[in-house]
Amino acid sequence: MQLEELVTIKSLEAEAWEALEKAIMYYQGHAVGTVAALDGTVDALNYDQCFIRDFVSSAILFLIKGRTDIVRNFLEETLKLQPKQNQLDAYRPGRGMIPASFKVVSRNGEEYLEADFGEHAIARVTPVDSCLWWMIILRAYVAATKDYSLAYQPDFQQGMRLIMELCLATRFDMYPTLLVPDGACMIDRRLGIYGYPLEIQSLFYAALRAARELLICNGNQDIVNAIDNRLPVLRAHIRKHYWIDLARLNAIYRYKGEEYGTGAVNQFNIYVDSLPYYELDRWLPKTGGYLAGNVGPSQLDTRFFTLGNLMAIISDLASEEQSQAIMNLIEKRWEDLVGDMPMKIVFPALAGEEYRIITGCDPKNIPWSYHNGGNWPVLMWMLAAAAVKTNRVCLAEKAIEIAQPRLKDDEWPEYYDGRKGRLIGKQARKYQTWTISGFLLAKELVQNPSAVTLVSFEPFTAEQVSRACEFEIDSFDS
Ligand code: GLC
After folding, report:
1. 3-471 adopts what CATH topology?
2. Rounded CA gap, 121 and 452, in Å?
3. Ligand 1 pocket test: which of 55, 188, 306, 427 has the largest number of ligand atoms within 8 Å of its C-beta?
4. Does ligand 1 have an atom closer than 6 angstroms to the CB of 161?
């Protein structure tokens, strides 16, 4: 690399760090998170808040850089915002939920944290992913600091327990996956992802793994048993029923419908005509595959959702073979999935009548814009983590090289529009924090691959969980 080029990259990184520094949110003198965006040119709306999902990339980066206090403060403060009792008012958030976001407010000269569980969001969407990401951040904190004592504190044990109770409760449902409403995750508007969206399932799996490592068995045996029962069934369900490659497409193409009883091959009664199989037949490379966006009664959503697929690799939800096939697909369909800005949130976009019916004519989610096929730079860190885990680092390097020259000039936009992500998102914020930290984290993971273990999981073994099982709850001296 030329010296001049190196100097430019270094100054770009320095600028990114400076911008990230400015985004840090302080509460009673302590750093507790990062605001979503610092765009001075438009009304802040709720972008002046710290979103749990938006903070993830900053949190991991801070942990790698030894600034663990911010993450610890974040975990402690957000835990206090978790309702511990069920509310009589059904419009209030239920026990165990973690808010979508929070902000600092001043009243009579005193600072308070105000939580938003979606009440202030458009369409009052439920942030199901928050409690799952919270578990993942807690586990990353413990992995980085080796400070188990934080997770073993009674308030943290209670917080985790309440999250697990929410996730593992008996429901009107017969699947091991988590049933959620539309917009319950990063895609927080209607996009036809109600039911069993992959993003939630991948985060659910990672959160179960995290809880299994951190919950003290003694005193939580019921929850630990429930996790042990759910983990293998959830994993097998996703690996089998969500998987799409040419062999599976062939099998599905010849499915018969209307089969009754336990012997049914077409278990979800997928009607073949609901699938764009001619397009998939053209699009699927021979060596590639991916996990479907959603599987439910007569429903197989064949859209490729990036976050869910990458987190499935990182969390070990996808098998080793499937992980390689997903990376093959990204490599072979680079123009569609990465294009000029890593990376597309979902492919393909919903268009025409489908767009109108499924999004409810959402003007922000027109085809190839925002959630509906826009390109989101934050996804770059997950691409880097998945690339490290599958030994395909060159794919992450290529993505960083594409993004690097544009992000600074474009002032770190929230998202890009267009088939290839060449247009700065129509309503994208500038100086979006997770764009900045996602880029820095992607670079960090490539340079320092061992850091991926903060978020990744290896195949599940008994040894990994024995530590918490040997720990006696009574022996903890808080
Ligand atoms: C948008 C995104 C959401 C994000 C929020 C703050 O609503 O869809 O995922 O958390 O902005 O950046």
Report:
1. Glycosyltransferase (1.50.10)
2. 32
3. 188
4. no
- This prediction's pTM: 0.96
DSSP, residue by residue, 389-443: HTT-HHHHHHHHHHHHHHHHHTT--S-EESTTS-EE-TTPPSSBHHHHHHHHHHH
Q: pLDDT of 5-17, one tens digit each?
A: 888 888 899 999 9
pLDDT digits (tens, 9 = 90+) for 271-295: 999 999 999 999 999 999 999 999 9
Q: Report whether residue 428 contacts ligand 1, using a CB cutoff of 6 Å.
A: no
Q: 437-456 pLDDT, tens per residue?
A: 999 999 999 999 999 999 99
Q: Mind listing the pLDDT tens digit for each residue in 384-421? A: 999 999 999 999 999 999 999 999 999 999 999 999 99
Omega before 405 cis (within 30°)? no
Are 383 and 416 spatial neighbours (Cβ–Cβ below 8 Å)? Answer: no
- Does residue 317's CB lie within 6 angstroms of at least one atom of ligand 1? no
Cα 4 from Cα 441, distance rounded (Å) = 23
Q: Are 353 and 281 in contact (CB under 8 A)?
A: no
